[in-house]
Amino acid sequence: MCEKAGYYRASQIVILAVFFVNLALSLVSYGDDPPALDRFGGLKKISFGPGPAFRTHYDGRRWWLVTPDGGAFLSLGVCVVQPVGYTERGTQREPYRENVLARHGSVGAWTTVTANRLRAWGLNTLGSWSGGELRGAFPYTKELSVSGGLWGELGAGGLRGKKAIPDFFSPEVKAYIRDRAAAAEATAHDPYLVGYYLDNELPWARDHRLGSDLFPGYMALPPAAPGKQRLVEFFRARYQTVDKFNAIWCTNLKDWNELAARQKLISRNPVQARRDREAFVLLVAREYFKTAAEAIRARDPHHLILGCRFLWAIVPRPVVQACGEYCDVVSINYYEAGWLGRLALRLTTSMRVRTDLTFRPFYDLARKPLLITEFSFRAMDSGLPNTYPPGCVIQPAVLTQKIRADKF
């Protein structure tokens, strides 16, 4: 297994609506005998019939993840299963690859050992950014990054570059998304593919990367930008007259054309203005998910669309709603907040989803099964600095590996 520098082993499990662990505890009893599994790891005892690909099934009480052979599948996996690792910061070294070759002698030998380790640990899925060495032995997921290059130059942990909001109404942006989604064609007939992630941890709201919230980002677009024109159309349809608009927002518009030239808005009526912002964010998110889902379906009509790996703490409610409208599954990356992070989340007045570890508010918005695609903990006795991200903000470190294991 490999770990990304500055990050830690990330695991994924499927939370299928209401039942979570009841799959093993309350529905199936096998005594001392191991359960019979299909070739993908699905339970043969709970079968929904074969199909062309992994799929979800709602039986009226709970959601199920179903293998192509028809078996109920509880996905337990790990990200970044590959023998190369990452280049060490400030060098050209690949320490993990060096250790793989020193310990195992070849990538082939590493592959055999890793497959056995995964099975011994009860893991059955290759998460995002895994290599191809174990494909055909384990189900896997694929991240397409359909819009990742459009959000300025925001890095996963960096505060650098231009902070740009993609104009999802723009023909150029739509073409970019369709081009990135074309990569689905290469795996359209692979039965071991669970499905596609559209992106990873997009800055849907202002966070540590210091970008902009969606609504002010679209207000700041040039007057002729398609997204700005869509915002004007949105307000025109919502208020009909500029007088009604002026009563809610601190403006003195004479006609709707003046709104396109404005770069920001200040509200007179905070409650109604918040409703306006949320309604427009829903339009933007729908445009993103609709464009991406249609582009994938044009290349691969069968495999699951697994959402875009929301950063749980900052994703706005309307974005989760739109994800549920166009995706088969809603994916969430969860990392425990530190004391300063918890304080910041309590004080925020944004439209973010406020949730506990049941993630019920996400389900209530999306009405689709949830997939926890990253979670992790770190310990001070690892021999690593463990200084980024700061533990007071997120991922507070515990003292020992034993405590770390207990948190998993």
Give a summary of the structure in a few sentences.
By secondary structure, the chain is an alpha/beta fold. The chain is 33% helix and 12% strand.
Element layout with pairings:
Layout (H helix, E strand, L loop, with lengths): L10 E5 L6 H4 L17 E5 L7 E4 L4 E4 L4 E2 L3 E3 L16 H10 L2 H14 L4 E2 L13 E4 L27 H11 L11 E5 L16 H6 L6 H14 L2 H7 L8 H5 L8 H30 L4 E2 L4 E2 L5 H10 L3 E4 L5 H9 L12 H7 L3 E5 L26 H7 L1
Parallel strand pairs: 6-7, 8-9, 9-10, 11-12, 12-13
Antiparallel strand pairs: 1-6, 1-13, 2-5, 3-4
Helix pairs in contact: 2-3, 4-9, 9-10
Written account of the structure:
The protein is α/β, with parallel strands linked by helices. The protein contains 13 helices and 13 strands. A six-stranded mixed beta sheet has the order 7-6-1-13-12-11. The protein has a three-stranded parallel beta sheet with strand order 8-9-10, with no helix packed on it. A two-stranded antiparallel sheet has the order 2-5. The longest helix has 30 residues, at 270-299. The two termini are 17 Å apart. The model is unreliable at 1-30 and 153-161 (pLDDT under 50).
The run of helices and strands is EHEEEEEHHEEHEHHHHHEEHEHHEH
Give the helix level as a range of percent.
25-40%
Q: Per the principal axes of the C-alpha atoms, what is the gross shape?
A: globular
Query: What percentage of amino acids are in beta strands?
Result: 5-15%
What's the alpha carbon Rg, rounded to whole Å?
23 Å
Number of strands: 13
Structural class: alpha/beta
**Number of H- or I-type helical stretches:** 13
Q: Could you give the distance between the termini?
A: 17 Å
If you average the pLDDT, what whole number results? Answer: 88
Strand line-up across the major sheet: 7-6-1-13-12-11
| Unreliable stretches | 1-30, 153-161
Largest sheet: 6 strands, mixed
